[in-house]
Each structure stands twice: as C-alpha cells, then as structure tokens.
Amino acid sequence: MANWTQKKLLVTIGGSALGLCLMAGGGIYYTMGLVSDVETQVTQKEEAVAAAEAKIKRTAGLERDVIILRENLDDYVKVLPNTKDLTAFVRMLDQFDRQSGIQSTGLVQKARRDGKGERFTPIEYTYEMTATLWQCMKFMNLIENFERFVSITEFSIQAGGEKKGEDTREGDVVHKVKLTLQTYAYNGKSEGKDVVIADYDTQRDLLHEVIWKRRQAIRLDRYNHRGAQGRRDILIDPRERGDLRVDGPSQAEQRAVLERYIGEVTRLREMHLKIKKQDTTLFEQYSLEKGLKDGLEKMASTLDTDASRLSYALYRLRWAKEVVTPLDELRGQIDAVAKAQPVKTDPYLPQKEMQQLVAEMAADCSSGQLEQAKNRYDAVAGRMTVPSGDPRHELAVAAKSWHVKATTALDFKGLDLRVQGVVVNREGRSGVLLNGETYEEGEYVSDDLLVKMVEEEQVWFVFRGLTLVRTM
C-alpha cells in the first residue's frame, strides 16, 4: 500500500513538474513574442527618429529657399499683374503709343471668364491702331519688352497705299493694324497661412546677396527694335510708292558716300583680322588697335549725318547691310575681347617689350624708316610714362629719345627749304642761298633752325637741337 502511495506521490510530483515546465515554456514563448514586438516598435521608432532628423536637416535649406522666394515674390508676381495693376497697364499702352508714334483707334477688353478659385486668370484686349510698318514693329517690341507678362497672340494688318489716298508719316504709308494682347491677373493665395520662420529678419539679412542674385535671374532678355535700317515696307509695292525716286543729293553723290564708308569698314575689318593673326608682332598689334579705335570713333562721329543723306532705297538697304551691320558686329567682337582679357595691374609696358621697342626704333631711324619708328612709339605711348624709380625708366627715356629724333627729322623733312646755291669759303664762313635769302654758317633761318655747315653737295642744319642734312 505504501508503495502505491509513493507511486501516486511520484506521479503527482512528475505531473506537477511537467505542468510547471509547460507553463514556463509557454511563458518563455509569450515573452519572446513580446520582446519581438518591442524590438519591432524600437526599429520603427528609430526609423521615425531618423526621418525626423533628416527632415530637421532639410528644414534649414527649406527655410532658406522660402525666405529667398518670399523676398523675391513681388518680382516674380510683377510679370503677372493683379486686377489693380491692369489700370496701370492700360496707361502704359498710352505711353507706348507716344514712343512708337502710332495712333490708337480702339481698345476693347474681351469677355473675361470667371477665374474664381484660379491663381491666374487670362485677360485679353483687342487693340486697333493706324501706324507705319516701322511704328507698328516698334510698338510690338515695346509690348514684348514690357516688364509684365504680355504676349501678342494675334495680329492683322490692312495695308494702305498712296494710290488709295491713305495718309503717310515720315514718307511711309500708314496701315490699319489690329492686335490681340493677352496677359494674366494674379489672384494671390486662396487659402492657407504662411509658415512662421524663426529669426526671419536675421536670416534674410544674411541671405541678402543670394536674394539679390536670384532677383537678377528673374530679368528677361530683351531685343530692341532698330528701325527701318534702309529696308522698304514689304506691304507696299515699290512701283506704286515710287521708292526709286531720288531726293536730296544725286545718286552719284549718294553712291560716293556709300562706297567711302564700305571701303572704310572693309579696312577696319582687315585691321581687326590682322590683329588676331599669330605672325603679327606685338607693336604691330598696338598700332593696329590704336588705328582701329581711331577709325571707329571717326566713323561714329559722321555716321548719322551721312546716313541722312541717303534717300535712294537701294543705297539705304546697302547702307544697313554693308555699313551698319558690319560695324555693330565689329564693335561687338572688340567688346567681347576686351571683356575676356584679364585686367592689367601693371600700367606700363613690360621690360622685354621695351627693350624690343628701343632696338626696333633705332633700326628704323638708321634705315630712314622715320614714320615707322614714330608710329611704333605712338602705339604704346600711354604705357611709357614710367616713373624714375622703375628699372624700366632708362628704356622709356631711350625710346622717347628715338621718338623725338624721328619726329624732329620728319618735321625737318616737311620744311619748305629750297637750297638754290652755295658758296664755300675755305678761309672763312661759307654761305647758302635758301628760299631766295642768303645765310652764312652760324646764322639762324628761324628760331629753331640754324645753318651749321655748308659744303659743295650738302648743307648741315641744326633743327631743334638735332643735326640734319639737306643735299643739293
């Protein structure tokens, strides 16, 4: 019986132990599930924290962009007028009328659709006027260059004509023109509030330079209408207009003016091309650049006056194509090169180039190339005023000395000195018959010209301190 009791006790204890083990295993499994859920939540939280940190990092950049956009909002919106600005736009049309010379005959606003809920509402006008072709083109150019967004979506032109008794302005036929102008009204924000940015004023001041640069990028490129430039009105048959009629100077005189300018333009363009050649020496470049600059300035001073002398349509057309356009291109190329060249901090000619200048001027003077020696110095004269403390000062003085000699010799060469006879006296002073007057050695012909020595075949003079000779 005792054995049975012990067995029951052992079974009870084993069952209890088994139950406890099962409960412990279940608890462990349940706990592992909880741990897994907690780990998943931790991972999610870490991802959320990382996303929040990334968003925080982007906030500074977003705030920066928002500040820049807010400060430039007026410039962005300015191209799209609001309702109040439309009145100012209509007034601006009146100003464009006066600038272009057209005469407005009607301005009608087309039916405006309901733009409720839209940020931008299109607005169209029908604009009618009378104008010459060039006045119309100038007016359209002013519209396209207007600071607000305005486009010409449609246009029609009813050509006039002298045979129909139409008016003329400045010698050109007046046409009837109808334009459709389209712009947009900006309605602003319909809802929502602006985000408050901490230390807005401080950040705005720090971004002042960036805001300014961004504002410059808003500007639109513009094309300025240049007028007729010798072209004829394409809406008019020249046989009806009588454009072949010549007013003012004769055709021969007008052709002479045109050909003279064309020749000068060709010469200047050849000079510009020679400057860019690799075999052109440095001093040739200086001389060519000076000649090119002087030539352009000379032409600019007479261009408008002589252009007004050309009334023959064919010559006006050639003037625009062969004179005005090439000159504009040439000036543009020169300006582009000038902008691309680095700014020179040393205003004087480099020592090596000064040495070369002195050597070449000496060679020119020795070989009688006085004009060439003078031109070499004149081309770089602005860069030769070296102060006395500069090591190049002696070279500058030497170059100046050769320039003085060349200039003096050229001036002496240009003097009207007619040597008509000489009397050579071996025992006393010899004499010379000069321009009908007799002068002995040591006498002055003028304040800066002295007869130094008279020989059978030549006479020596001292001119401005330089000894020079004239042969019989």
Which key terms come to mind for this protein?
54% helix, 13 strands, alpha+beta, Alpha-Beta Plaits, 5 domains, 472 residues
Short recap of the structure:
This protein has 472 residues and is of the alpha+beta class.
In terms of topology, how is this protein built?
Layout: H1 2-71, H2 73-78, H3 85-100, E1 103-109, E2 120-131, H4 133-144, E3 151-158, E4 168-169, E5 172-173, E6 175-186, H5 200-206, H6 208-218, H7 238-241, H8 251-276, H9 282-307, H10 313-340, H11 351-366, H12 370-379, H13 393-413, E7 419-423, E8 431-434, E9 437-440, E10 444-446, E11 449-454, E12 458-463, E13 466-471
Antiparallel strand pairs: 1-2, 2-6, 3-6, 4-5, 7-8, 8-9, 10-11, 11-12, 12-13
Helix pairs in contact: 3-4, 8-9, 8-10, 9-12, 11-12, 11-13, 12-13
| Series of secondary-structure elements, N-terminal to C-terminal | HHHEEHEEEEHHHHHHHHHEEEEEEE
Q: Cα distance, first to last residue? A: 174 Å
What's the gyration radius in Å?
45 Å
Mean pLDDT: 77
Question: In which range does the helix fraction lie?
Answer: 40-55%
Which residues sit in consecutive blocks of at least 5 with pLDDT less than 50?
Answer: 240-246
Strand order of the largest sheet: 1-2-6-3
The percent range for strand residues is 15-25%
Name the CATH superfamily assignment of the largest domain. Answer: Ribosomal protein S6/Translation elongation factor EF1B
Oligomer: single chain
CATH classification, class level of the largest domain: Alpha Beta
